[in-house]
Amino acid sequence: MVIQIEYEFTLPKGFVDENGNLHRKGTMRLATAADEILPLKDPRVQQNPAYATIIILSRVITKLGDLPSVTPKIVVNIFASDLAFLQTFYNKINAEGNTKLKITCPNCKTDFEWEMGCPG
User: Fold this and answer.
1) 105 CB contacts (<8 Å, ≥6 apart)?
2) How many CB atoms lie within 10 A of CB 97?
3) What are phi and psi for residue 110, nearest 5 degrees?
4) pTM exceeds 0.85
């Protein structure tokens, strides 16, 4: 059995860097226990526990567009809708182990699967 440890995603809006370049496609790896525990020692998290999400995501996002690395400064400047997407994506790959959602069309009632990482 091969375990998939990295998953591709496409942000709904994308991150715009200081040069105006848009970065939407990325890769996130599975989190380790250290990814969730070590940020708790960070003073920024101790002052604001919500900041743990920022640090954790910056640790597990291995690629975002053409950026050389993903830092907390980048994650904190991602649009709120993209942050929500990344949190859902993180939970999906770490809690359930896959990125497919079972969806029922509200109009025709057809059931299908949607891959979260695909552009849509």
Assistant:
1) 111, 112
2) 11
3) -80, 135
4) no
CA nearest neighbour of 71 among 18, 13, 118, 8: 18
Among candidates 96, 101, 94, which has minimal Cα distance to 6?
94
Tens-digit pLDDT profile for the chain (120 aa)?
677 899 999 999 999 999 999 999 999 999 999 999 999 999 999 999 999 999 999 999 999 999 999 999 999 999 999 999 999 999 999 986 555 666 677 778 777 666 655 444
Q: DSSP code of 44? A: H
CA distance 23 to 47: 30
**List of residues 6+ apart from 36 with CB closer than 8 A:** 56
User: At residue 106, what are phi and psi to the nearest 5 degrees?
Assistant: -70, -20
> In 10 A of CB 52, how many CB atoms?
17
Cβ–Cβ < 8 Å for 81, 37: no
- C-alpha span between 71 and 54 (Å, rounded): 9
